[in-house]
């Protein structure tokens, strides 16, 4: 595979890696990051999650809860390379942080638990990386744990993630006796002695020679099946050299046709050096990824990772600190210096760059400039938000922003004291600015301020942030989920005439609609909206057809059951009529809106509620209580397996039934049960096809 780095071998960008650490919660992402920082000399003491001394989990809530909540950027140097790392959250409620990070990364290290293998959120973040086309290598962590098994973890990668796992290491020792690995590419041993941070290189142990030869042969065969150069050498020489194998592994990683699998124990500082070497060798530099694409005056433009090109950068994170507002950028092209002016193309305003900072979690080093390939924070922009494009004023460009998921849980919030009302409003606005997946609105009926987010924990963290950072006492209402409405059985031939005459030019529009359900796997089987026209003979001009479509979209905001958004339907405009003087786009848009509202009232409607896939790990003696509780919560069990002396139960449960589940599960399992969730779309809230009782 030919890349830009081959054409520019002397470019400093070939020595840059912009990488993310991805994993399920508790798989060891933050510990891996800490060990990388320690080994590269970026820190002088190993931070521990359980002690609250990690660099990347610097927020008080992260240290209190023992999980990563906010994506944290750090930088380090290794073997002549600059590595910019983003430690991402592993909890499903903070998947939007992962989405924004993946948008600006060139590669990633996926961390898996050697006992649990691929867990639900591991699979979710893997799919997110697939959507962004981010190449990955895999690190099977915690090989020192009881029940750890590399082969079982690799098989779960093969079955659940469906890549071709290319295992390049063989563990030396098992569980407590794990002390090193055999490097199958160069056929050498790498050992870490107790109490020492350095690795000792040596020959393959005699006891593992046969097994290492067998696994090296398996690796050669797997690579030869996927890579033509390796296949040619394998056929000619019946083996593949280490040099060819390395090139082939790099190509397969960057095309996504294979994933290199390494192993180790980050907690014991074993396996990190070869992981860093693999990240440098196999994952891409900014020159190895396609040029970023954006739009300029409606035309698609490409910007190469060239410091001499016009400046273009994407904002992926905004935070407020005690010293000011930090705007995190991925610079895709060009160079920016302190004091220069850039254009925020979304807000259409100029911003001055006051300071440029190299980020080390909550610590910063000031820079004079940032160039293509850099991930930095800047001080100065006042309106830029996550997804904004900052570019050279003389060469405007709009880069595609990260997608933002729709919130699924809401709570009502109010200040306990009337004197804190303005402070609360300011704090909520700041929260929504920093985290686009948080939405603040005012309920038009109750006048309450409603905060919506991705889950119960997401909202708990947001409210606690207001209390801690702003010192504002807040009352919080019971969480509510975001219902949807859909069409179970539609109507045909609904006629609607919009006629309005109040002096002067009137309004006239005549439309005939068919409404039917639209099945879509993208939203739990009830997704999307589709509009098409079947009008013949020009009875409704095209500009009026578009107006009818816009009116129908207006009507989707509130359904007839309880004012919830409507989804999962197809509307067909079958006929209509116009008036030579009184017809207009406004008239047909109004007709489309009222016609669809009337059609929905005449249709059999179905209430949808968000559901989640819940994976519960519980001791065998508590399985009965767990299953009974899931049934009481309207859960549908889809799988049950036994793993390392515990039962793992997978079920689909309505999100509304999961509030407070953590406390209930602890009580039923005497504190030994754990669970994880991930969104599973929407499902009917009732067994009947229609419902006429408003739901609020």
TrEMBL record:
Any one Gene Ontology cellular component term annotated for this protein: cytoplasm
Pfam families: EFG_C, EFG_III, EFG_IV, GTP_EFTU, GTP_EFTU_D2
MF annotations from Gene Ontology: GTP binding; GTPase activity; translation elongation factor activity
PROSITE patterns for this protein: G_TR_1 (PS00301), G_TR_2 (PS51722)
Domain Tr-type G: 14-287
Classification via InterPro entries: EFG_II, EFG_III, EFG_III/V, EFG_IV, EFG_V, EFG_V-like, EFTu-like_2, G_TR_CS
Localization: Cytoplasm
Amino acid composition bias (Polar residues), ranges on this chain: 687-696
Any GO BP: ribosome disassembly
UniProt main location, coarse: cytoplasm
Superkingdom: Bacteria
Keywords noted in UniProt: Cytoplasm, Elongation factor, GTP-binding, Nucleotide-binding, Protein biosynthesis
Stored SUPFAM superfamilies: EF-G C-terminal domain-like, P-loop containing nucleoside triphosphate hydrolases, Ribosomal protein S5 domain 2-like, Translation proteins
Keyword GTP-binding set for record: yes
Region (Disordered): 671-696
Chain residues that bind GTP: 23-30, 87-91, 141-144
Its biological purpose: Catalyzes the GTP-dependent ribosomal translocation step during translation elongation. During this step, the ribosome changes from the pre-translocational (PRE) to the post-translocational (POST) state as the newly formed A-site-bound peptidyl-tRNA and P-site-bound deacylated tRNA move to the P and E sites, respectively. Catalyzes the coordinated movement of the two tRNA molecules, the mRNA and conformational changes in the ribosome.
Alphabetized HAMAP family for the sequence: EF_G_EF_2_B
Family named by the database record: Belongs to the TRAFAC class translation factor GTPase superfamily. Classic translation factor GTPase family. EF-G/EF-2 subfamily.
Protein name (Swiss-Prot/TrEMBL): Elongation factor G
Lineage of the species this protein comes from: Bacteria, Bacillati, Actinomycetota, Actinomycetes, Kitasatosporales
């Amino acid at each position: 595979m030919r890349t830009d780095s081959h054409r520019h071998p002397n470019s400093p960008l070939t020595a840059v890696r912009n990488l993310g650490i991805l994993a399920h919660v508790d798989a060891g992402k933050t510990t891996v990051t800490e060990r990388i920082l320690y080994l590269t000399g970026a820190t002088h003491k190993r931070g521990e999650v359980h002690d609250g001394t990690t660099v990347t989990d610097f927020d008080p809530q992260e240290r209190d809860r023992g999980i990563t909540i906010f994506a944290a950027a750090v930088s380090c140097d290794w073997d002549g390379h600059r590595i910019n790392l983003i430690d991402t959250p592993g909890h499903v409620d903070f998947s939007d942080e992962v989405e924004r990070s993946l948008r600006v990364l060139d590669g990633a290290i996926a961390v898996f638990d050697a006992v649990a293998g691929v867990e639900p959120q591991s699979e979710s973040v893997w799919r997110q990386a697939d959507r962004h086309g981010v190449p990955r290598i895999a690190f099977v962590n915690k090989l020192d744990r009881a029940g750890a098994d590399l082969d079982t973890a690799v098989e779960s990668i093969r079955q659940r993630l469906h890549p071709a796992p290319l295992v390049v290491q063989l563990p030396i020792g098992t569980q407590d006796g794990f002390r090193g690995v055999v490097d199958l590419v160069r056929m050498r041993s790498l050992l870490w002695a107790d109490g020492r941070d350095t690795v000792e290189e040596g020959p393959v142990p005699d006891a593992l020679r046969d097994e290492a030869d067998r696994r090296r042969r398996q690796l050669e065969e797997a690579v030869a099946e996927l890579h033509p150069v390796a296949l040619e050498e394998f056929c000619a020489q019946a083996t593949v050299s280490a040099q060819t194998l390395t090139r082939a592994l790099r190509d397969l990683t960057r095309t996504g046709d294979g994933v290199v699998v390494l192993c180790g124990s980050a907690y014991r500082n074993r396996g990190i050096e070869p992981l860093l070497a693999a990240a440098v060798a196999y994952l891409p530099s900014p020159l190895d990824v396609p040029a970023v694409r954006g739009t300029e005056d409606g035309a698609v433009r490409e910007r190469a990772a060239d410091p001499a090109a016009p400046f273009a950068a994407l904002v992926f994170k905004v935070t407020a600190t005690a010293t000011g507002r930090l705007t995190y950028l991925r610079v895709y092209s060009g160079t920016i210096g302190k004091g220069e002016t850039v254009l925020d193309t979304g807000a259409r305003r100029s911003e001055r760059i006051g300071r440029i900072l190299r980020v080390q979690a909550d610590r910063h080093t000031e820079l004079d400039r940032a160039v293509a390939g850099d991930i930095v924070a800047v001080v100065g922009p006042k309106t830029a938000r996550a997804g904004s494009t900052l570019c050279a004023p003389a060469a405007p460009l709009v880069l595609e922003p990260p997608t933002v998921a729709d919130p699924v849980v809401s709570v009502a919030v109010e200040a306990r004291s009337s004197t804190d009302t303005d402070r609360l409003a300011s704090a909520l606005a700041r929260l929504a600015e920093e985290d686009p997946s948080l939405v603040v609105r005012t309920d038009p009926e109750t006048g309450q301020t409603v905060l919506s987010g991705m889950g119960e924990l997401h909202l708990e963290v947001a409210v606690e942030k207001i209390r801690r950072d702003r010192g504002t006492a807040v009352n919080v209402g019971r969480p509510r989920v975001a219902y949807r409405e859909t069409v179970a059985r539609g109507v045909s031939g609904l006629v609607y005439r919009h006629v309005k005459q109040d002096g002067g030019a009137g309004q006239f529009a005549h439309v005939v609609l068919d409404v039917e359900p639209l099945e879509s796997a993208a939203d739990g089987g009830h997704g999307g909206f589709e509009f098409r026209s079947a009008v013949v003979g020009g009875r409704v001009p095209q500009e009026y057809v578009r107006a009818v479509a816009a009116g129908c979209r207006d009507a989707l905001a509130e359904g007839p059951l309880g004012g919830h958004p409507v989804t999962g339907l197809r509307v067909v405009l079958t006929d209509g009529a116009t008036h030579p003087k009184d017809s207009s786009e406004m008239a047909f848009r109004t007709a489309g809106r009222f016609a669809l509202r009337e059609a929905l009232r005449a249709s059999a409607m179905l209430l949808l509620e968000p559901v989640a896939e819940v994976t519960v790990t519980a001791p065998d003696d508590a399985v009965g209580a767990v299953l009974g509780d899931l049934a009481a919560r309207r859960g549908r069990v889809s799988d049950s397996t036994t793993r390392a002396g515990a039962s793992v139960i997978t079920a689909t449960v309505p999100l509304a039934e999961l509030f407070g589940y953590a406390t209930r599960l602890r009580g039923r399992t005497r504190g030994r049960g754990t669970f994880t969730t991930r969104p599973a779309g929407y499902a009917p809230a009732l067994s009947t096809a229609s419902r006429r009782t408003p739901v609020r």
